Amino acid sequence: MLVAEGLTKKFSGLVAVDDVSLHVAEGSLTGLIGPNGAGKTTVFAMLAGFLHPTGGRVLLDGVDLTDEAPYRRARRGIARTFQITQPFAGLSVHENIAVGAYLRHARRADAMDRAAAVAERVGLSHELDKPAAALTVAGRKRLEVARALATEPRLLLLDEVLAGLNPSEVRDMIPVLRAIRDDGVTIFMIEHIMQAVMNLCETVYVIAQGRHVAHGTPQHVCADPQVIEAYLGHGAAARIAAGGAHARG
Ligand SMILES: Nc1ncnc2c1ncn2[C@@H]1O[C@H](COP(=O)(O)OP(=O)(O)OP(=O)(O)O)[C@@H](O)[C@H]1O
């Protein structure tokens, strides 16, 4: 469904993303992981059209979107969330979600109905009339997902929607994300919380210092010495293997 070919982004002298290629299959739940500063959010910004790549292409169903503005990609069915949530603080939760729904529903009543249905899916039904500013961190994360979902995407790009949540809030959110996918929305998610990645994702891409390191099932990438080195530093994989052998011995 989504293909990135050789995506590259340079900021002056810094190569934030360096020749990254990836595929997201329709109906899948795919992860993007990597250490801080690896270039994950920059990849998402290029997929959603917020940044223009220095090199490479983005294709959806074989159509080249590289030069399309974000709102055009949204119409094609790509929605993204932001790592730092910024709801319209003066609007209610219901109105915030409706902002996304206006993409496909011009009448206020229709947008509000759509927003209420989306709130139900993400567990915000009881908070609809609250000002968005009154939500907890967990509520704001759900609102971020809801605003994107209200655009009725085919592909949802989630940028660390579990960051800042406590373990029980993470556990509550996992089935919400799985249900969104089961309803037919393809999900590509950046996530640091490995419990969620292991639970949710069928395929995971790993990048570090802007470059592709590995991809495969979560189990496969976690056992990959290059991934271990990317997170823990040079020589870590060998030290862990030696420690394991020592423990077994
Ligand atoms: N607009 C920008 N101008 C200059 N440098 C940038 C810009 N955006 C990102 N960078 C740099 O590009 C690199 C990749 O940043 P990015 O935010 O994509 O990483 P990330 O993997 O999402 O990190 P994190 O997990 O910490 O959110 C970093 O070194 C960052 O400082």
Automatic annotation (TrEMBL):
Keyword field: ATP-binding, Nucleotide-binding, Transport
GO BP, sorted A to Z: D-alanine transmembrane transport; L-alanine transport; L-isoleucine import across plasma membrane; L-valine import across plasma membrane
Stored SUPFAM superfamilies: P-loop containing nucleoside triphosphate hydrolases
Gene3D superfamilies linked to this entry: P-loop containing nucleotide triphosphate hydrolases
SMART domains: AAA
Superkingdom as given in the UniProt entry: Bacteria
PROSITE patterns for this protein: ABC_TRANSPORTER_2 (PS50893)
GO cellular component terms listed in the entry, alphabetical order: plasma membrane
InterPro entries: AAA+_ATPase (IPR003593), ABC_AA/LPS_Transport (IPR051120), ABC_transporter-like_ATP-bd (IPR003439), BCA_ABC_TP_C (IPR032823), P-loop_NTPase (IPR027417)
Molecular function terms, GO-annotated: ATP binding; ATP hydrolysis activity; L-isoleucine transmembrane transporter activity; L-phenylalanine transmembrane transporter activity; L-valine transmembrane transporter activity
Positions of the ABC transporter domain: 2-234
PANTHER family, alphabetized: AMINO ACID ABC TRANSPORTER ATP-BINDING PROTEIN, CONSERVED COMPONENT OF ABC TRANSPORTER FOR NATURAL AMINO ACIDS-RELATED
Protein known as: ABC transporter ATP-binding protein
